[in-house]
Amino acid sequence: MKKSIMMLSAAFMLGGVASAQKVAFEEYDLDNGLHVILHNDPSAPTVVTSVMYHVGAKDEQPDRTGFAHFFEHLLFEGTQNIKRGEWFKIVTGNGGVNNANTTEDRTYYYEVFPSNNLELGLWMEAERMLHPVINQIGVDTQNEVVKEEKRLRYDNSPYGQLIPQVKKNMFKNHPYRWTTIGSMEHLDAAKLEEFQAFNKKFYIPNNAVLVVAGDFKIEQAKEWIQKYFGVIAKSTPIKRTTFEEAPITETIKATFEDPNIQLPMVVTAYRTPSMKTRDARVLDMISSILSDGKSSRMYKKIVDDKKMALQIGAFNYSQEDYGTYILYGLPQSPFTAANVLAEIDEEIVKLQTELISEKELQKLQNQFDNQYINSNSTIEGVASNLATYHLLYGDVNLINTEIEMYHSITREEIRDIAKKYLNPNQRLVLDYVPVKDKSQN
């Protein structure tokens, strides 16, 4: 009876989350292939204009890495109708904010304006697509900006090489093997014509999605979208190469010395399927079981109870083509990396051999309900999610239905997916250590 009441309660909770958070939208295509998504929400007098391009680090050449991230910066330099250095002044002068970000799979630009400046936001994004000025002074300026970012985020940041080192060892064929920020040597060597060709190939209407979200009149927005984006010519469709990795069948062992740390870190990583798969969602749940919060299995046991580690974590680094499931720990003296890894493995074996409890499953579902609500709690979050679900997942309505998929995951699936992907012969073990003191040798 108690179990039935719990299940009924969970069903009501899911129904409440789904109905309260349902995101209404309209989508259509312009003749030039630009996909448009409109989400009207008059609850606050703001509007987001955003464009996501299907270009990321994986679309670069091995000897010219870092281009997609470079363009995240470069396309703020100016256009034929926006003078160099004026982009941010126009935005802030009209009460707005803007930003951009890049991953291995896509690049995203957005502005948030007061509702009465929707036309301005649309014009600026159309300008970025149609009339970017890509010249040597802009390339040189942004080259220095990117170099400084690399120094801060990677070269001089403690554990800043964690993800790059994992990627380097996990992928031998796929472009996921290099970092999004890329190689400074490649950017230095690139000629202006190469940047211009990259722009012409990827930053085109038929490789992008435009999202307008917030307080606006739909028919007026459609008129402006046609006015500013409809005139942009459709370009040559992009032919994408499929890269496949051979299965990992024995443990990969690697060591990396980081001059910015004093404490070693043990890292283990497993190659997993695309974020579009159901298996990837199950792995998301496994991450929560292992390390989401102080009551999670690994944190409670390894950090709190046994005091073997200062920090412990697990996360599913999901991407369009493959994912990488990463676990890490900072051993606390006198315990070693081997001690911590043994404890991590013990928790994984438990997941592979024992079903989690109904109570733990309910806790998981509550956590994912909370994440779902938070991800759609701002108009900026909704805009980003709408663009992502269209461009990378091929289904905009996942913004409303993906939570149902998480709720349908069973205890048996969690056990089976852990057994399928998280095995010692399918992983990388990386010893991430301080630089050795050579004076002691």
UniProtKB/TrEMBL annotation:
Peptidase M16 N-terminal domain: residues covered: 36-180
Signal sequence segment: 1-20
Location of the Peptidase M16 C-terminal domain: 192-367
Xref: InterPro entries: Metalloenz_LuxS/M16, Pept_M16_N, Peptidase_M16, Peptidase_M16_C
Keywords from the named record: Hydrolase, Metalloprotease, Protease, Signal, Zinc
PANTHER family (alphabetical): NARDILYSIN, NON-CATALYTIC MEMBER OF PEPTIDASE SUBFAMILY M16B-RELATED
Family named by the database record: Belongs to the peptidase M16 family.
Protein name stated in the entry: Insulinase family protein
Species: Flavobacterium keumense
